[in-house]
Structures are given as structure tokens and as C-alpha cells.
Write a structure and sequence with these properties.
The chain has 128 residues and is mainly β. 0% of the residues lie in helices and 51% in strands. The radius of gyration is 16 Å and the shape is elongated. Bound molecules: zinc ion (2 copies).
Length: 128
Amino acid sequence: MSERFIFTRHRTRCYHCGEDADQIIQAVSAQAQVICSACGATRIFIPRFENTGAVGTCTPIGRYDLWTLDAGGRCKNCGVTGPHDLAIGSNHLTTRCRNCGYTHFYRFNLEYMAKRPVDDGVSAPPAP
Ligand SMILES: [Zn+2]
Ligand SMILES: [Zn+2]
């Protein structure tokens, strides 16, 4: 990803490992990711639509709290580098330019483990 739009972090309890750890948030036009810095659990969001008008507030559904953050980014609509509002829930991720209101709406696509931080039983004998 050579394009850099949003790159920030949010310290919270990881839904996966339960650690109080930085969750690294990256977003570009084509994709958004949230990665736990402790366990590597990664959530991928893909674009659903972009919108220059106002969007209604999203109803958080699911097992994660809704995070509302702000982050600096360069808006591709108005070209201004400035604060963007981020809202990250279990099923969606949105970024919104505070200057012009341009909104990227991503939906949850998949989840995977980016790395294995500890050897959690690879050498254990297989179950009978
Ligand atoms: Zn974690
Ligand atoms: Zn803008």
C-alpha cells in the first residue's frame, strides 16, 4: 500500500487476546485494516461506498465496542490534510473528512492472524 490515507492507533482491550494493547488502524481507498500490536489479530474492511453527503450514525452491532477516534489524513475529495473522524465497529469502519464531509464507508470482510506471537502448542502431539 503506497497510498497513505489514515494511519493511527487506538489503545484498548483487544477483542482477541484480551490485552490492553495498541490497535493499529490503517486505511486507504481500497482497504482498511485494524491490527492488534500484541497478538497480530487483523481485521480487514473493504470499501462499500463513498459519499460526499452526510451519513447517519451507524448502529453498532456485534461483539465489539464502537470506537470513535480522530486521525489526520489527506482527503482525496477536497485535498486538505486534516482531521478525519473514524468510527470502527464490528461490522463497519468509516472515515469522514471534517473539512468537506467526504466519507469512506467500509464493511467488515475477514479476520486473520498476521503472526504467531508465541508458540502455542505447535509441538504438542496430535490429539488421538
Ligand atoms: Zn490482541
Ligand atoms: Zn475533504
